[in-house]
């Protein structure tokens, strides 16, 4: 079983033990590749671990390109591969202030690529697009973590706000969460 590890959109942050991939050659990636172009230069079922650190929100300006990226990621992953995605929260100045950010990446967006979630949409009569079913891909969401902005961390630590206050603020205010970390698992077998 292949154990290839990919750091996609590596920029100047090379990860030891990973194949570091970027569109630009500026910082000497191991492989220079535009991930909006398919097929990716990796074998089917060859990858065990993907890191997309502040990278996925830069990729797939058109819907078609983004769907190609998700489909291609599923193709190269082996069953059980882990994909770590770190992105700026879409309601943060960090996200809004960079013209190379082409789309928000949220747990809701990624849930569209999960068969389990697609089945729930159908059971519950929700209109969410069943992309896992349309594209025949399946990424299970294993965990979601939110890194709060420093002033919200301080308010929580000082007991000035509750977790419920923060949950409500995340939905209604800017600059509450700095970064979202989402861990996915590629599902490829009928398990
Ligand atoms: C904000 S940087 C993050 C770099 C690194 N992951 C880090 O955390 O420091 C985003 C990187 O994604 C790369 N990138 C953007 N679009 C890409 C594409 N279509 N294919 C490959 N890399 C891409 C950019 O060249 C850039 O190096």
Automatic annotation (TrEMBL):
Any one GO BP annotation for this protein: methylation
InterPro entries: SAM-dependent_MTases_sf (IPR029063)
GO molecular function, one term: methyltransferase activity
Origin superkingdom: Bacteria
Keywords: Methyltransferase, Transferase
Full protein name: Class I SAM-dependent methyltransferase
Source species: Azospirillum himalayense
């Amino acid at each position: 079983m292949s154990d290839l590890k990919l750091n996609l959109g590596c920029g100047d942050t090379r990860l030891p033990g990973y194949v570091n991939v970027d569109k630009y050659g500026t910082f000497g990636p191991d492989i220079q590749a535009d991930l909006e172009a398919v097929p990716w230069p990796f074998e089917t079922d060859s990858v065990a671990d993907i890191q997309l650190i502040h990278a996925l929100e830069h990729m797939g300006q058109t819907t078609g390109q983004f769907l190609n990226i998700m489909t291609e990621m599923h193709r190269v992953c082996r069953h059980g591969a882990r994909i770590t995605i770190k992105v700026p929260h879409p309601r943060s100045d960090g996200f809004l202030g960079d013209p190379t950010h082409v789309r928000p990446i949220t747990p809701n967006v990624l849930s569209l690529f999960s068969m389990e979630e697609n089945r729930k949409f159908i059971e519950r009569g929700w209109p969410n697009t069943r992309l896992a079913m349309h594209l025949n891909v399946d990424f299970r969401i294993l965990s979601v973590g939110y890194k709060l902005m420093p002033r919200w961390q301080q308010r929580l630590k000082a007991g000035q706000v509750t977790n419920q206050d923060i949950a409500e603020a995340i939905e209604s205010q800017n600059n509450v969460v700095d970064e979202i970390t989402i861990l996915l698992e590629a599902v490829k077998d009928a398990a």
